[in-house]
Structure formats: structure tokens, C-alpha cells
Write a structure and sequence with these properties.
This protein has a domain at 18-94. Helices cover 43% and strands 8% of the residues. It has helices at 23-49, 57-61, 68-78, 85-94, 105-114, 135-144, 159-171, 200-205, 235-248, and strands at residues 7-11, 118-122, 149-153, 175-178. Strands 1-2-3-4 form a four-stranded mixed β-sheet. Strand 2 (118-122), helix 6 and strand 3 (149-153) form a beta-alpha-beta unit. Helix 1 (23-49) packs parallel to helix 3 (68-78). The longest helix is centred in the first third of the chain and has 27 residues, at 23-49. It is globular.
Length: 249
């Protein structure tokens, strides 16, 4: 939608849900799982066919399911073929592989709502997937796929980003989400904690009660100590000058 890939978080549907109204959504997820496992196996074959064996892959996967990311990429780094995940992904792409299995966002939202799920747009400000969401792209999206919320707190957001998405969510009566991509230690980063009250509306719809804050703002710049800081203009130049000065010493 809008010429870029969007990620969707769907809450309130269990993987073993037996309700008839959940069948369409669970069917979509089963198809996605098969596609992604096929993509992972394709990536493995391409890497090994290029003369780069992956002996550590079996141990990394263990008894679980293999995905292209992070298991195959982790094995590529661990077995010494590339120095980082970034180079691993680039190599798979150079060899003709891919990582994504996309679905029309309208289809996902419709199936999610049919199963009484809550559809929250994940990290709409994550620019590595394409242009960050704007007020205009949100309005266009809501016409085709009426999502229930936006993820307003994310590990790469500055306070300015968070303020912008909290404002957008408020203007369109959307719930506010927090903290996706906290899958586990180093996958891709250590999990972070967010205040429950920042996602009070979402948690309430899931049956989790969060007490109202007695005084002060629910959120304000500076409340998240781990939020990335905007660099001042000239900061990079001064840093380069400082490093140059140390080299001359």
C-alpha cells in the first residue's frame, strides 16, 4: 500500500482458536508460515550452492522452525561467511534469494477483524522499509484498511517521532501500541520495557486494566530514557574534528 511494505500486529487471536470466524485469519497465517519456511530453505540452498556450507544451522534451529531471518543469517555469520546480519542479507539477495512474503494489507485487516482481532500498524516510522507514514498516507490507508491503531513507541523513534504518531493516533481515534521487535536477547536487540499506560487503550481492549495516571502527562519528551537523541547540526563535523585532533596527538 502506498508503494511500500507495512508490517501489521494483530492482537487477540490465539493460534489454536477454534472459532469459525477465526478460520480465515489462521489460514492466512498458515500460508505465510509455509511461504517463509520455503524462503528460508531457498536461502540456505543458495548459500550452500555458492560454496559456503552452514554447519552451525542445525544447532541454531534446534527443534524449532527455520526462518530466513534470523536463523539462516545467524549461521552465515557464525560460520564466518560474512561479518554481520546486514552483509548476510545482502549476500542472499545477490544470490537471487528474498526474505518477504507479502499479503495485501486490506486482506489481513479484514480477516483479523472477522476474528475480532485488533490490528495495529507496526513501526509506521521505520524508514528502512520505505517512506515513513504521514498524515496523508494514514488517511489513504484507513480508507482501504481500517486499522485499529498505530505503534507509537518503537526502539528507533526519537521523542519527535513518538509525539507525531501519538498525535496522529489521537486525531483518528486509534489505539497506541508499543515495543514490537523485542523478540528476545539480540533478536535483533534486547527487549525494552515501556510504560503500560502508554498503551492503555490497546491493553484495555485486550481485557487488561491499566489504572489512570493521577497527575501529569501520560507521555512527554524525555520520559523514555532509551529513545534515540536527535543530533545537533554540526555535531558530526565537530566529532570528526575531535577525532582528527586526537590522531594528530
Amino acid at each position: 500500500h502506498a508503494g511500500r511494505q507495512w508490517h501489521m500486529l494483530v492482537y487477540g487471536i490465539w493460534p489454536d482458536d477454534k472459532r469459525p470466524e477465526a478460520a480465515a485469519f489462521l489460514g492466512l497465517m498458515a500460508d505465510q508460515e509455509r511461504n517463509l519456511r520455503g524462503i528460508a530453505d531457498d536461502a540456505r540452498r543458495r548459500i550452500e550452492a555458492s560454496g559456503r556450507p552452514l554447519p552451525s544451522l542445525a544447532g541454531i534451529v534446534g527443534t524449532g522452525k527455520m526462518w530466513a531471518y534470523p536463523e539462516v543469517l545467524t549461521a552465515m555469520v557464525k560460520d564466518g561467511h560474512v561479518p554481520s546480519f546486514k552483509e548476510a542479507a545482502e549476500l542472499v539477495t545477490e544470490l537471487g534469494g528474498r526474505f518477504n512474503s507479502d499479503l495485501p494489507i486490506e486482506e489481513v485487516v479484514h480477516a483479523g477483524h472477522q476474528a475480532s482481532g485488533i490490528c495495529v500498524m507496526a513501526h509506521p516510522g521505520r524508514s528502512d522499509l520505505g517512506p515513513a507514514m504521514t498524515a496523508q498516507t494514514l488517511v489513504a490507508l484507513l480508507k482501504d484498511a481500517p486499522v485499529d491503531g498505530l505503534e507509537c513507541h518503537y526502539r528507533t523513534y526519537t521523542d519527535k517521532d513518538t509525539a507525531r504518531f501519538r498525535t496522529l493516533a489521537g486525531e483518528h481515534d486509534l489505539v497506541m501500541g508499543t515495543g514490537s521487535d523485542s523478540h528476545g536477547p539480540k533478536y535483533p536487540v534486547d527487549p525494552r520495557s515501556y510504560r503500560a499506560i502508554w498503551a492503555k487503550g490497546l491493553l484495555g481492549r485486550l481485557g487488561i486494566e491499566v489504572e489512570d495516571q493521577l497527575d501529569g502527562p501520560v507521555w512527554a519528551p524525555g520520559m523514555d530514557p532509551l529513545a534515540p537523541k536527535l543530533k545537533r547540526k554540526g555535531a558530526k563535523r565537530k566529532d570528526r574534528q575531535r577525532r582528527s585532533w586526537w590522531r594528530r596527538r
